[in-house]
């Protein structure tokens, strides 16, 4: 989670791509495609990430291409703050993998938050929690990461009505919890309300 390491990882990924080390018999694994995109976006290399998404999509297994392209373009639009476009793109994604489904739901949840679509956000948080608790294919660690993240987002939404002591306590809880999907984003939302 240290921000400086993302720059190092980005350089490593670029080398792996240039030297074709990341490819397996000419195929780019979908997980690497998503990770490379995420790292590029995290460090603000939006144009590079967009080029990577479109240029390297053809190296994915055929069964993954369209969903991977659409999801990663949605992620790019989220980072560019084009939230309406995120929703539009996510409508066209079919989640074939449980982890993709989790990430897609979380991205939609963050998008609703950014758009102040609180009715849709509340409904999605409720259905997401039910999905996490009922789905036996999700490990307890992943369940807890997402449940914790939803819980803290709900607390952030109530924060303006909380005492200063409870606000400080919330920040410490978020900073200290190792089981979160996106601590940095949650802390950014917290800071925006202070």
Q: How large is the count of helical segments?
A: 10
Rounded to the nearest angstrom, the distance between the terminal CA atoms is 23 Å
Mean pLDDT: 95
Count the beta strands. 0
Give helix % range.
over 70%
From the alpha carbons, calculate the radius of gyration and give it in angstroms. 18 Å
Beta-strand residue fraction: under 5%
Query: Biggest β-sheet: count, sense, barrel?
Result: none
Oligomeric state:
single chain
Question: What is the approximate shape?
Answer: globular
- N-to-C SSE series? HHHHHHHHHH
| Uncertain residue ranges | none
Structural class: mainly alpha
Characterization of the model:
With 194 residues, the protein is mostly helical. The protein contains ten helices and no strands.
What's this model, at a glance?
This protein is an all-alpha fold.
Pick out its properties.
194 residues, mainly alpha, 10 helices
